[in-house]
Write a structure and sequence with these properties.
The protein is of the alpha+beta class. The chain has 15 helices and 18 strands.
Length: about 575
């Protein structure tokens, strides 16, 4: 007889979240009390089955090396590990299952809250498998083919020692969950392209990991150092450079040490701003290294936002002639930092919907974040958008020009005759009809194969509590030709390394943002017949060996799609840049 399945039924009263204890960074990081630094966080919760298994995530505790398979009890309404000792957190496989499930669920919820809708996975299933002890290797990755996040572990060298588990590193779990979420959001972000797009997956996953860790108050309290007896710390600890060099820098050094003997999943990228000429350096063609540019920008902006939020908290000794240091409450200072991290993370995630579906660069990302944030917070009273612009500018990145059309301000507004406005919120055929009817007015060429890839309604909540309903549709254009035909069509010469008979595939496309009434507001576009961009892309792909198995350019990489992230991580580790 099969084992009876255990269930955790919803409470009698309505409940959407449960509070669970998680490892805030890594088991190697301790708090003021010398114990593993943990945090109690709210995690989305619904009916659970053994595994644990919910509607979107399913823990499968199977070790491919030993064949061990463990079914853990479902997560209940009470945390069984709320007061567990450190050795239990490090070694109890049931806590490992809780930690990986809760961390992935919290990450998914962060994306869904920011984007205002439920998000699908990139594969045809509703549940993502989480395998906390998949193999004996210091690695972790998202696998499309397995529909899973696979976490490795390092067996103990000494029989009396303990194994080290990647599933217990908070940033590693968030990083891999972000890969899975991005794959569902925009599957063509993995298409062979210019180096910025290839770097985005790794860089953005690192940013989400960094800001997720910093959005937990206990982490920042620890970073700020011990307070005095009244719980206060001197102002000198929260000066801009002090935050960067002596506190948050120490936190970043410790993140994800299980994988890299101290380098961490974030590779200390936030500690090393890129050189001014980074875009010209060959080392920055590597996706992980280039992605670090984005992480450095996010870290800089986080510091600036936190400093701005702290200004009102400083207090001076009272009384005429009083002397003493300027101090502030450590818990409140940490709370402001956590709010800053969450706000910045939300801004960046919102921008994903405003990216073109293919061929984007870092300038497009900045543009997208600014456009999306302006829709929900037009006033920007605290100046966060300006801080973003300045942060990108310090890295030499400017807003992309001539890639966004404000349709509401256009001299030639779109035709809506015969269009079903309700269909523009959900129907790909209706959106294609609209695009076809307005192709000339939107400057969209009909010479190439065109397909509407997604139509997604959103409801975003602004800082004033008002709901901003929108509908986001993406279209992609494709063309296949030989390198010689490309030269004939464009009048541009490709690299001599590209055989004229080489088949090439070109991409273009755009994102259409409709308001709540079905009127088109914005058109974010990347023209397929931007021949200079296509020339740079094909030359880059040839120079970096990005042919597929048939020696074609621009179609796919030689790796199977499901192993893309595993190969990325192993390639970097084999070159000495462990992640």
């Amino acid at each position: 007889m099969a084992d009876e399945v255990q269930y955790a039924e919803p409470a009698d009263e309505p409940r959407t979240h449960v509070t669970l204890r998680l490892i805030a960074q890594d088991p190697a990081v301790s708090g003021d009390d010398g114990r593993i630094l943990t945090a109690n966080v709210k995690v989305p919760w619904s009916r659970m089955e053994d595994g644990p298994r919910g509607s979107r995530l399913h823990v499968v505790d199977y070790d491919t090396a030993t064949g061990r398979y463990v079914k853990h009890a479902p997560l209940g309404r009470e945390d069984l590990f709320a007061d567990a000792a450190d050795d239990v957190l490090r070694t109890d496989l049931a806590f490992h299952a809780q930690h990986v499930y809760a961390t992935a669920a919290r990450t998914l919820a962060t994306f869904e809250t920011a984007l205002g809708r439920r998000l699908p996975w990139g594969f045809r299933s509703h549940q993502l498998f989480l395998v906390p002890h998949a193999f004996p290797e210091a690695n972790a990755f998202y696998s499309y083919d397995d529909r899973a996040l696979l976490f490795g572990y390092v067996p103990p060298v000494d029989p009396r020692g303990e194994a080290v588990y990647t599933c217990l590193s908070h940033d590693v779990v968030v990083h891999e969950t972000t890969h899975a979420v991005l794959d569902g959001l925009r599957r063509r972000f993995l298409e062979p392209s210019l180096p910025d797009q290839a770097a985005f997956h790794e860089g953005f996953a690192d940013i989400v990991a960094l800001l997720s860790v910093f959005s937990m108050r206990p982490v920042l309290e620890q970073a700020l150092g011990r307070p005095d007896r009244s719980g206060r710390i001197p102002r000198s600890r929260v000066e801009r450079e002090a935050l960067r060099r002596s506190m948050l820098a120490r936190v970043a050094e410790q993140i994800g040490s299980v994988l890299t003997q101290g380098r961490g999943a974030l590779r200390q990228s936030a500690l090393n701003p890129p050189p001014q000429d980074w875009a010209k350096l060959p080392e920055f063609l590597e996706p992980h290294r280039r992605g670090e540019v984005l992480v450095a920008i996010a870290f800089d902006v986080l510091i600036e936002i936190w400093v701005k939020r702290l200004q009102a908290l400083f207090s001076r000794p009272r009384g005429e002639g009083a002397t003493g240091r300027i101090t502030l409450d450590r818990a409140r200072a940490a709370e402001e930092g956590a709010k800053a991290a969450f706000q910045l993370l939300t801004m960046l995630i919102r921008g994903l919907d405003y990216l073109p579906p293919v061929e984007f660069d870092f300038g497009d990302l900045l543009n997208a974040v600014l456009l999306a944030d302006n829709e929900v917070a037009p006033d920007d009273d605290l100046g966060y958008r300006q801080l973003l612009v300045e942060g990108f500018a310090r890295a030499g990145i400017q807003r992309s020009a001539n890639r966004v059309t404000d349709v509401l301000e256009s001299e030639l507004p779109p035709y809506y005759l015969g269009i079903n406005f309700a269909g523009l919120r959900s129907d790909r055929d209706e959106v294609f009809r609209f695009l076809w009817q307005n192709a000339r007015r939107l400057d969209v060429s009909t010479d190439y194969y065109t397909v509407i890839e997604s139509v997604l309604p959103t409801q975003r909540i602004g800082p004033d509590g008002l709901i901003v309903p929108e509908s986001v549709a993406t279209y992609v254009q494709m063309a296949e030709m030989t390198a010689r035909e490309f030269t004939d069509e464009s009048g541009l010469q490709l690299s001599p390394a590209i055989d004229p008979r080489t088949p090439v595939q070109l991409f273009g496309g755009g994102t259409l943002i409709f308001d709540q009434f079905g009127r088109l507001k914005l058109h974010v576009h990347k023209r397929l017949d931007d021949w200079r961009r296509q020339q740079r892309r094909l030359d880059h792909l040839a120079r970096t060996g990005r042919h597929d198995a048939s020696r074609r350019l621009g179609f796919s990489d030689s790796a199977a799609r499901g192993q893309t992230f595993a190969q990325l991580h192993r390639t970097e580790r084999s070159s000495g840049e462990t992640w």
